[in-house]
Amino acid sequence: MPTIIDSDPLFRYLVKFHVVENFYKRALRASTRDGDENHKLVAPLIIRDLPTIRGFVKQELKLRQLDGLDLRQVLIEEANQDGAYVLEKKMLSNKVYVHNLVQSVLRDNALRTLENLQKRGLPSDYSKGGIIGTKTQNALAAGLRGGRAYLVKQTAFGRTSCGKVCLFDHTGLRAEFFLVQDFDKRHPSSHYFHPSKRIIGVLNESPTLNNDERTTTLITPLQLGISPGRYLNLGEKLFSNVSDLFKIVQLGV
Q: Is the pLDDT of residue 1 over 60?
């Protein structure tokens, strides 16, 4: 059955970008405890399809045509700059600061507090009782305001030193993709993004206003067009079956 990864090209792009650029090239080099920020990750916020966004941006929007733009290089080179990108049709802005968007959503929806905002648009287990950060607040508010917001998070999750890739719309948290270490189940070796560490990809989707009603799908490297061996120095010959994998793990290779 098709998922949001199939229907939303930008979300798919960011999921693949996150796996390749953040997990393989950054997270594997230095571990970060779950719940801590991994500041080495490239973590953009992109807001699109929000007609009122210019009213919350005080800077000049300098738009660049996506056609011909090396988006990967842009995201990496501008990773240390604060702010969010605005996507208008096929034009991507410079990074800008978003002002008063969260406050306007709180006011217009009579939510009053950030806690109420989280209850309105996030699953109950999303932040485990804590207050979400500024980028997540703006992403959630942009979604609830009628746009779409794409956020790559730096908060380590799933014993992978990586965060989640989130998509927000009028329902709140529409979808989230994350990598997680899974020792509970035995999957075919081709399902692992890192076979020896048993890292799998998970997609949660919440297509309704009740964000606790989620569908969960296992996402494989093949579905994203990723060959783990290319990044793990395994060559093209991965473990032929899961029993070979467990033998190698037991030997400590």
A: yes
Q: Count of H helices and E strands in the chain?
A: 8, 9
Torsion angles phi and psi, residue 205, rounded to 5: -125, 140
Identify residue 167 by its one-letter amino acid code. L
The structure tokens 């009053």 sit at: 112
The three-point CA angle 213-134-144 to 5° equals 45
pLDDT reported for residue 234: 54
Query: d(Cα 211, Cα 123) in Å, to the nearest integer?
Result: 5
**Please, which residues have CB within 8 angstroms of residue 182's CB and are 6 or more apart in sequence?**
198, 199, 200
pLDDT at 253 over 70: no
List the structure tokens of 232. 């793990």
**86 close to 48: Cβ distance less than 8 angstroms:** yes
Q: How many CB atoms lie within 10 A of CB 245?
A: 20
Residues 6+ positions from 243 with CB-CB distance below 8 Å: none
Give tens-digit pLDDT for 105-120: 999 999 999 999 999 9
How do beta strands 148-152 and 45-48 pair? antiparallel
Per-residue DSSP letters for 25-37? TTGGGS---TTSB
Strand partners, 216: 204
Give the Cβ contact number of residue 135 at 10 Å: 21
